[in-house]
Each structure stands twice: as structure tokens, then as C-alpha cells.
Amino acid sequence: MFKFLSHKLLNKKWLNACLLLGIILLVAVASCNPMFKNGALDMLMSSKFDAAMVEQNKYPATIGRSGSCAVDDYADADAVLGRIGKYEDMWNYYMEIDALQKQTSLSLQAGYTQSNLNHRTSFNMTYMPQIEDHVNITYGTSLEDAKTEDGVYPCIISQRNLDKYGLVVGEVFSIDTGLSDAVDSQGNPMKYQIVGVFEEKDYSDSFWYDQLADLDSEVYVKKDDFNDMIGKYGFLTIYYVDHVMLDYSQITHKNAMDTLYYLQSFEKSDKYFEQNFSSVLIDYKGDARTIGIIIWVLELPILVLLLAFIYMVSSQILEMEDGEIAMLKSRGTSTKQVLGIYLGQSAILSVIAIVIGIPIGYLLCKLAASTDSFLQFGFKDTHFYGVDPWMIVYSLAAAVIAILFVTLPVFKYAKNSIVEQKSRTGKVNYRPFWEKFFVDVILVTLSIYLLYNYNKQKSTIALDILAGSRPDPVIFLNSSLFIFAVGLLVLRLIKYLIRLIYRIGRKRWSPAVYASFLQITRTVKKQGFISVFLVMTIAMGMFNSNMARTINKNKTQRIDYNLGTDLVVQEQWTRGTYIDKDKKTHWYYTEQDFERFTKLEDSLCDKVTRVIYDDNAVIKAGGEELAGSVLMGINTKEFGETARLQSGLNKEHWYNYLNDLATVSNGVIISSNLAKKYNIKVGDSINYARYSPIASKEKEEIASPSGTVCAIVDAFPGFQQYVYEKDSEGEMQEVERYLVVANYAYVVGAFSQTPYQVWMHLKDGVDYKDVLQALSDEDVNIVQYESVDKDVSEMQESPLVLITNGLFSLSFIIAIILCTVGFLIYWITSIKQRELLFGIYRAMGMSMLEINKMLINEQIFSSVLASLAGYGVGAAATTLFVKLVAVVYLPESHNIAISIAVDPYDIIKLTAVVVFMFVVCFVVIRTILKKMNITQALKLGED
Predict the structure, then answer these.
(1) d(CA 379, CA 369)
(2) Which residue ranges make up each domain of the chain?
């Protein structure tokens, strides 16, 4: 049986090879789904932890506990550490995630002290295991090398605390016995001496979960001295804080939800348990659902196209073997046996497809994961994407579906004997089901209705997506439905057009043209499938490319607008405070040397400028106060040379607004939404205020200067008009912000010198990392920076965008392959099936030139018209659906509205492939005609 099936497959080896190609691609695309999905989820997880690290400025996967131990139960540091260790063992037992580092501190509350230099402070005596391995002694000595008088404990202090309290190395502190019980049995107070000052070895060291800047009441002692204090001075309680930094690379799609469950369980059972990443996991949970849906809905059109291709090829094979099946039936072969033959053939092909398809699926997944943009593949890290056992399950499912698509159509042929087959062969084409019952019109109407309905709900859809809800998959699938439905509708219209042309000129056509029109009208059903296939392939290729380009371009434009320049850095400033005679606290900042930045203009930057940026300012207008507004203080000339703004966002060039601001010292530029809200015009005055940087129960305004409105703008570099936050009920809401831009000198005069951002316009070809390294070499402590190049790179590597670029690129490539192969298959089989007909034409006196003319005419009125229709449908789908689908990727309202991006090179690539396909097809047809045994065909024609 196997030998019979093998010979049968080899009998039509090229058609079966094409069928095998379709099944291989189907298996490959299906099998890469779990690999691509799980890789994207792991990448999503990692990116969320990275983002949390930047947002919190702390290690983002930390668990721990803070509490206290009675000395009666835990007499020394080792006893307390042993208790902490038991908690850590329990956490590790359940979560099974390795710890990278841990920061544990034990402290005694010593109370107020008085130093020999009359400094009065209150420090905790703290023992922190392994602190010596993570600090540098900048002045004085270490705890191990320290030598003090008898009864005086050596301690070290951070540089920040030394500066904050104005202390010096060598200063000795004694406990204030009036406010503390830390005295020995003889009534002598506890004493300690500052012997050294230290700083972190590495600010990025995960050991420093609690930064030294936050530990503002700690001095550090050795373990032996810590234990000695407990016994000698009668401390009753040891306080502890334990932070365990987990290796978050071990938190994947497999254990994420289990980890979240354990964290929530620990919190319920232990009120002292602390963790900082359950919100990351909850956020991941919502996005994971979105990614799963998007992968399926983006893959579904590819899978449908592949199944259509498999159906088309198998139909061609069955039509060619119609007589063979009828002969088997007439010789007594049962329908079941005929089905068994084709089931066996398709099973052999499917087994081969699984063996070849899974490795190809692996490579396709790696290829999709390496996309930088649409059809741009780079060599980058794809370690998140690895082999997954579910690939085998998905490939088996795809193979079974392929077998059904190949085998089920056999039912139609397996019921007929030779007599029935011959009688059916003579029948004229009949109208297909979809054409008879206007399925195409119904589907187009349904698609347009869904589009209209979704367009009305755009704002709601955007807010739901921002709140973490899953996008409705129909939003994506509706575009594919539209393309398919309009493809059918176009086929109907092409059919009517061909009939009209045929009737108009049937009495004037030459025999070759007449024969070609006759062939087209009689085989419209057969040609209909390849026509719809062409329309869908070209339209989907156009739509996918335009969709990907739109997402990438709009995201890049928004990133560029939000930052306003190439690189923005924020340096660490030192804040000082003092108390006046009225016991009122005052603050001041010491400005760093700005020339360290300006000297970069000679090498790395075209221009740099200072920008005071405060997104928590208050604008006072119309008798109201608008908190959470944006205040920018700029040097107009420098700012204009450094910042940039996309043209067309304002009524005139934004340089004109800067010129207007430069002429008025207390002038301001305001946003148009503010002007509209309170009917403010140029020349009017408004007030604006900033809050004191010192945290207090109630915010305190520094000043509230008045500004004269010089210009009103719709958009301004760095101003995001809309932000999103959750209300008291947890619902996502859009918050509109307002802008006021003032002169830098006036802002400093009104509010005193405060930390500013440094905006940099880099020279062509300069990497932002080179600038940051240059600043580091100058000992500039950058605490925060934003770069357009960095943000665009992160956007392109974000899971959602990567999935879109990857799958759209793959679908584009696969669609082109299928279109080319499917087109060639149809015309090659069509020519071979008409060998006798060509012999008849030649016997009737038709030349080869006229036969070629006939074939060209068939191409024009079937394939070329369908291809042109594909371009039209793709353009229509782009116009109607791209902005709607883009809402899923760009749900935020923005000063830059979503615009459709079309890259002409994508259309050129597609057109080149289509033209190449037609040329190759015609060359192949010509070659077949030349090799055709025309003498035998002529003889048959004469007979």
C-alpha cells in the first residue's frame, strides 16, 4: 500500500511538492505560536521588571520582613539573624527563586546624643552584615582598623549624613541620660565615636535596596560591639529590616502566577511581610492576555491563507485525477477505500511536514523575534525564544487540519462512476453558493457596520486598554473579513465586467480574443479561487505593511515629541536647609558647574541648554487653581537651537513664539487648552506657582508670580497634554494638563535656584552612551536621563511592537510565496489540462502567436484585474481600518494625532514580486507550450 501511495504521489510530484510546501508552512506557523508567545511573555516580564527598577529606583524583585525581637528571646545578633533565616528558608521553599543578594540590618534605638562638639542628634546603632564589601571608606578608617578609648564604640557614617548634620570624623557622642535608658550598671552613658566616612562602591549594586540617601538616621558598628551594647546597656528590643533580592530572570510565564499567589498568601498570613513586585505581576497578567490574543489574531489570517492554498492545490490535484477516481469507482473500489487512498497520501505528506515544519517554525520564530521594524531583521538577542514542548502539539493539530482539508473534498469525487464523471464534465459552470445568495455583499455590510460601531467607541476602547483590559479580537479580524468580503465582491464585479466587454465586442473579436473570452467566462469558477487568492494576498500584504509602518512611525514621532530633543539628563543636586530665628525651615540648592555640559559642544553636542521642568506646578486663572500643570523655564535662543518640534502642529512656526517670549521678561507661553478653558488671549495676565521641595503635610507655595501671555500654542517640545491615572474606584481616567513656559531667568528669580534638566542636541552619528560616558568621566552624577534613541530602541524591542512587526513581516513574506506558487500552479495545470484544446485550435489554423495572444488576454482579464483589485482593496482597508487598529497600540490621547504611514518601497517590493510572478508565469507557459507534443495534439484535434 505504501509503495502504491508513493508512486501515486510521485506521479504528480510537482503538484504534491507544492501541497507539501503549504502543509510545511502551516505546521511551521502553527508550531512557532507557543514558542513565540512564551518568548514574548518572558520578554514582557523582563521588560516590566526593568521598567519597575527605573521607576522605583530600587531593585524590583524584593521580598523581606521588618519587625522587632525581644532581647529576652533573642539575646544577640546571631539569634535574630537565625530567626530571619527561617523566614527566608520558608519563602524559598515555596517560590524556588534564587536570591542574588540580601540586605539585612539590625538596629538599636539609642536615642538622643550630645557630642563633644555640641552637636545634638539621634542615631540608631546599626549592624549590617557584609556592609564592608559594598562600601568605600572615603575618610578616616574602617571599623576593623579603628582604635578608640576604652568604653567608646567605633562607628562609621555615610557621607550624606555627615554633611547633613555637619559632623566631623573623630567626634564622640554620649547618650543623653535624661532621654534614654542606655546606661551601664554603674550609670555611665553609652558612647560612640565616628571613625570613618563611607560611600557606596557602586550605586547600581543590588545590595543597596535601601539607599544610603534613605538611611538618614543610622551609624554602623561591628557585630561584636553590637552584641556588647545589648548586654552592657540593657537594650530590650532589637529592630530588624530584611530585604532579599530575588533573581527575577527566573520568574517566567511558567511560574509568574504561582509566584503572585505565594506573595499574596505571605501578605495575608504575615502582616510584617514586605514585597515590591506583586503589582508588576498583576500588570503582567493583564498584558499577557493581550499578547496571547494579538498573536492569535495576527496569525489567524496567515493560517487561513495557508489553508486556502492547501485547498486550492488539493482541488487542482483532484480535478486532474477526477477520471482516475471515477475509473476506480467503476472497477468496484468503495468510497471508503478511495478516501483511504487520499487519507494515506495526505498523512504521508503531513508526517514529512511535521519533521521539516517544526525546525522551520523555530527559525521563523527566531526571525520574527529579530525584527527591528517591518521587514527589517537584525542580529539581536533572542534568548527568550526557545523550543517549547507545545510546539509538537500545535504541529500535530495543524497536520490533522491539513489532512481534513485535503481529504474531505474527495467525498465530492468519490461518489461518481465514469458515466457520472463524464456527464458532469460536460456541464456548464454554475453559480457558486456565495454568489447566488450574495454572501459577499452581506459580509461587506457586516464589516462596515462593525467598523462604524468600533469607531464610535474609540475613546472607550482606548481607556479599557490603558486599564489593562484585553482588546476585542474582532477589531483585528474585521480588517481580514473586509479584505475577504471585498475580494469576493470584486470577483463578482470582474465577472460582470468581462461579460459586458465580451458582449460588446463578440462580433468584432479576432478568433484568439474570442476564444480567450469564451475560456474566461466558462472557467470563471475555477479562476475565481485564484482571483480571490490574488486579491487577499496583495491586499493583506499592503495592509500589514501599512499597519506596521503606521505603528512604528507614530510611536517614534510621539517619543521624539515627548522628549523634545536628543538627550535630557538630570544631575544629582545637593539640597541644604537651615532654621531661622523664627524656627522656620528654609531650603537652598547649590548649582553645579554648567560648563561641564557646555564644553561638550566642541565634540559631542551641537547645543545644550538648561530647562527648568516642573510637572507639579499650579496655574491660577479664572479664579481657579490648576494643580498638576507643567511649568518650563527656558533660555529662548538656546532652547530653539536645542529642542525640536514636528512641523504642522501649530498655526505658525514655533520659533515665532520663542521670539515673542524673548521680548517680555515676565512673558509666558501657554497651551491652547488653557486659553480655551478660560478664554485667555495674548496680552492677558495669569499667575503660576511652585511648591516647596521639603515634604510636609500641606504643600507650601514658594511664590506666585504673574506672567503676561505672549503666545498660545497647540504643541510644545516636551509637553504631553494628556496623562492617565486611576481614580478612587480604580478606573482609568484621562487627565488633561496645561502648560506655561517662562523665561529661565525670571523663573529662577521668582522661585530661587532649583535643579534643572540639561537638554542636548547631539551631533550627527553621536551615540547618547558616548555623552553619558563623557559626563561620567567628568564626575557628573547623572541620576536620570532620557534619550530618543534609547526610547525608540526599547519601543522596537517591546513585546507588543515586536510581535506586530514580526508577524506582519512573516505574513507578508509567506503571502508573497503562496501568491507566486499558487499563481504558477493554477496556470501550469490550466495549460496542461487544455493541451487537447490547443491542438484543436492549431488544427483549425490558429498560429502560436494567436495562442500566445489568447493567453495574454486571459491574464489581463483575470489575473491582472484581480491584482489591481488587490491594490485597491489594500488601499481601502488601510484607509478604513489602520487608525482603528492603531488605537490598540497607541491608546493615549496625544498632541500628535495618529496618521497613516505608507512606505512606497513596500508597494514597490510587492509590485516587483507581482510583476516577476507574471513574467515567470508567462515564460513557464511559453516553455510548456514549446515542449508540448503539438503533433499529437494536432492529430487529436483533427480526430
Answers:
(1) 10
(2) 1-34+285-427, 59-275, 450-564+788-943, 573-780
The helix/strand/coil state of 632 is strand
User: Helix, strand, coil: what percent of the chain each, to 5?
Assistant: 55, 20, 25
Output Rg (C-alpha) for the chain, integer angstroms.
38
Per-residue pLDDT, 941: 46
Dump pLDDT digits (tens) for 873-905. Answer: 889 999 999 888 888 888 888 888 888 888 888
Around 662, how many Cα atoms within 13 Å sit in the side-chain half-sphere?
A: 12
Q: Kindly give, in sequence order, each residue whose CB lies less than 8 Å from that of residue 843, ignoring residues fewer than 6 positions away.
A: 938, 941, 942
Whole-model pTM: value is 0.75
Q: How far apart are CA 845 and CA 133, in angstroms?
A: 98
Grid cell at residue 881: 481600518
In this structure, the chain runs to a length of 943
Residue 14 phi/psi, 5-degree rounding, is -75, -40
Question: How many CB atoms are located within 10 Å of the residue 520 CB?
Answer: 21
Looking up cell 513557464 gives 924
Q: Kindly tell me the burial class for residue 889, based on how many C-beta atoms sit within 10 Å of its own C-beta (0-12, 13-18, 19 or more).
A: buried
* DSSP-assigned states of every residue in 757-817: EEEEEEPTT--HHHHHHHHHHTT--EEEEEEHHHHHHHHHHSHHHHHHHHHHHHHHHHHHH
Query: The cell 542606655 sits on which residue?
Result: 182
192: β partners: 153, 173
Helix (H, G, I), strand (E, B) or coil at 411: helix
Give the cell for residue 278.
506583586
User: Mind listing the pLDDT tens digit for each residue in 384-398?
Assistant: 777 788 888 888 998
What are the residue ranges in the chain where pLDDT is below 70?
1-12, 177-182, 185, 320-335, 338, 373-374, 376, 378-379, 381, 411-432, 468, 502, 505-529, 578-583, 585, 695-698, 727-731, 832-848, 929-943
DSSP secondary structure, 733-764, as one string: EEEE--EEEEEHHHHHHHH-----EEEEEEPT
The strand pairing partners of 108, in sequence order, are 125
130 C-beta neighbours (distance < 10 Å), count:
12
**What is the distance of C-alpha 897 from the center of its chain?**
19
DSSP string, 535-587: HHHHHHHHHHHHHHHHHHHHHHHHHHHHH-SSEEEEE--EEEEEE-TT--EEE
Q: How far apart are CA 415 and CA 348, in angstroms?
A: 24
DSSP annotation of 183 reads B
Rounded-to-integer distance, Cα 539 and Cα 543, Å = 6
pLDDT tens-digit series, residues 73-125: 888 888 988 898 898 889 888 888 888 888 888 988 877 777 777 777 778 88
Q: Which residues pair with 243 in a beta bridge?
A: 64, 103
Give the span between the Cα atoms of 507 and 350, in whole angstroms: 51
* SS3 assignment, position 895: coil
**Residue-level pLDDT at 426:** 47
CB 330, CB 417: distance < 8 Å: yes
